[in-house]
Amino acid sequence: MDAPPTSDAITFFNRYTAKIEQEQIYGEPFLRWTYETIPGQIALAVAAKRVWFSKWYGWRMDRAASQSKVMPFIETYKLDPNEFQDPPESFRTFNEFFYRKLTPAARPIDSDPDSIVFPADGRHLAIADVSQTDGFWIKGQQMDLARLLGSRSLADRYATGSMLISRLCPVDYHRFHFPVSGTASESRLIPGSLSSVNPIALRKRLSILWENKRMITEIQTPSHGTVLMIEVGAACVGGIHQTFTPGAIEKGDDKGYFTFGGSMTIVLMEPGRVQFADDLLKHSTQQREVYARMGDVAGFR
C-alpha cells in the first residue's frame, strides 16, 4: 500500500514510470532551515519573502557570470538537451537557460477537443470541489478564494469549482501554456510577497498562495465555460512574464514564463466543467502530487 508523504520527505507519483518517487529538492537544507526553525522564520520575515530579495536573486541569474552554472545544472539534474530548442552553449546567462524553449516534439499537445491539458511541467494536485479543501495540506487550512482571486464575486462563482495546482520546481521547464482553447483576456496583476511554494512551506502556511504576487487571466471557452489561469510568484522568482496577445488562443499555446526560481500555476474551472484523470484524483486525495508534463491530459469535460 502506498505510504502517505511525511514532513521529512516530499514524494510524488511519476505518471511515466508509474512509481512513487522522492523529490530532489533544489536548496532543500535552506528551505527546511527557513520554514522549520525559529532562526529561519526570523530570516523569512526579514528578507526571504521580500520582493527585493527575489529581484536581487533574479538579477544575479541575469549576470554573465551565471552562465557557468548552466552545464553543471543540466548534468546534476539529468536534463535532456535534445529537448531544447537552442543548444546549451547558446545561453548567455542562467536565466536564459531557465526560461528556455523546447522543441514542439518534446511536449506534444493532446488533440482531443474535450481534454484539458497540464499548463506546465511539474507536480500537480487536483481538487474536484474547492469548497472541500479543509485539511487538504494540513488540518485547519482552507482555501481563501476571495483573497486568491482578489474578488468576492469571482470567489462566489467558483466556490464549488475545480482546481488544478501545478508546482514548478527549479529543475523543471519554466514556460507555461494555455490548458484549453478560447479567448484570453488581459492578465490582471495582484501584488504580493514572494515566499516559497514548496510543500515544506505550504504545509506550514497555505495562505502563501494568496499572499504571494500573482497574475490572473480569464479564458472564455465554447465548452469549458470561463477558465481562470493564475500564475503565482515564489521566492527567488525574478518575475512572471506574459508572452501571449489577448484574444483567440489555442490549447498548448505559449502563455509566458517565470524567471529563476520555483513557481506555480493554478487553473480554476466552474463547477461541473471537468472530470480529472483517475491517477490525478487518486494521488491528490492522498495529498500526493502527480508528475506530468505540459500538454499531457489533466482531465476531460
TrEMBL record:
Names of required cofactors: pyruvate
Protein name according to UniProt: phosphatidylserine decarboxylase
Entry EC number(s): 4.1.1.65
NCBIfam families, sorted: PS_decarb
Domain of life: Bacteria
Keyword Lipid metabolism annotated: yes
UniProtKB keywords: Decarboxylase, Lipid biosynthesis, Lipid metabolism, Lyase, Phospholipid biosynthesis, Phospholipid metabolism, Pyruvate, Zymogen
Gene (UniProt): psd
Major enzyme class: lyase
Pathways per UniProt: Phospholipid metabolism; phosphatidylethanolamine biosynthesis; Lipid metabolism
Pfam families named in the record: PS_Dcarbxylase
